Protein: 2-amino-4-hydroxy-6-hydroxymethyldihydropteridine pyrophosphokinase
Organism: Chelativorans salis
Amino acid sequence: MTGRNETRVFLGLGGNIGEPAKAMAAALRALNADADVQVEKVSSLYRTPPWGIEDQPDFLNAVAEIRTGLPPRRLLQLCLDTERALKRERRERWGPRLIDIDILVFGRQRVSEGGLVIPHPRMLERAFVLLPLAEIAPDLVVEGRRVAEHLEALDVSGIDQVSADGDWWREGV
């Protein structure tokens, strides 16, 4: 990366079929290998109950902080390409998946266009997003309040930390 025009971005990662920890680690390594992306920090892995459609396996979730020179739409395309390379098939909203990569926050930018809304429109309702995000960026301000403050309003019961730290993606899970 050139170091110019780099934006601090937070990505949410998750999956609940196959080997989601391996898929998320592979996704982070693939993103980090791109010349325009640098993975800066990754949360611990969390096992979380399903959200939306509850009759499915628990998810593993994590959040990553990256720096990128890409604009939001190009980063989204890179994330979607990474999901496809890992054999993600989009069948059912909130349904089972091998891997999911969402752009949560893109610097201070607000985006609302076809297929891309930033900040992520439901992130503040989801403990499985805010808990790992608060681990690596508790003072990040979203919608006028710190992430840690948003998290205080949510039920985190049933969410378990399953890795000691954020190095799980480097260790070849």
Remarks:
- The mean pLDDT is 91.
